[in-house]
Specification:
Length: 147
């Protein structure tokens, strides 16, 4: 199912949940995500991340003082193979405001979508069913990927 989303110009925005599932080896979700992350590692898909994803994934490891987990998230999000870490700028801010007003998104979700659009992503990988209302991207829900 997810392969169809990358038929034109393969690009996928990675939100926090899929990265947490993979890095922490979530027993239910990691197996579903491994094929996507392998395709990213192989260069078949260009992943896009943002400071929002980095900040969201680091909260719990910082709270618990889990330095190796902090480093695993930083490496995956900022320095991952075929992963583009996109800083947020004024253009993203204006687009996030428009998306937030159009879809009633949270500010963090609006920034994530704005970055994905600006980077030319075809798909947005998340486990947030509420993001389905966004029409500009294919929204891939981890729960629906299947084994």
């Amino acid at each position: 199912m997810w392969r169809r989303c990358f038929s034109r110009s393969p690009g996928c925005s990675l939100t926090s949940a899929p990265i947490v599932y993979l890095v922490e080896q979530h027993p239910r979700y990691a197996p579903q995500l491994i094929p996507i992350f392998r395709a990213i590692d192989a260069g078949l898909i260009q992943a896009v991340t943002s400071p929002i994803t980095l900040a969201e994934t680091l909260v719990q490891p910082y709270r618990l003082g889990q330095v190796p987990l902090q480093q695993a998230f930083i490496t995956t999000i900022v320095h991952g193979n075929h992963t583009r870490f996109v800083p947020i700028d004024a253009t993203h801010s204006r687009e996030a405001a428009q998306l937030r007003s159009r879809y009633n998104l949270s500010l963090t979700d609006a920034f994530q979508v704005a970055v994905a659009q600006a980077a030319g992503c075809d798909a947005f990988l998340t486990n947030d069913f509420g993001l389905r209302r966004v029409q500009e991207l294919s929204i891939l829900i981890v729960d629906e990927l299947g084994p």
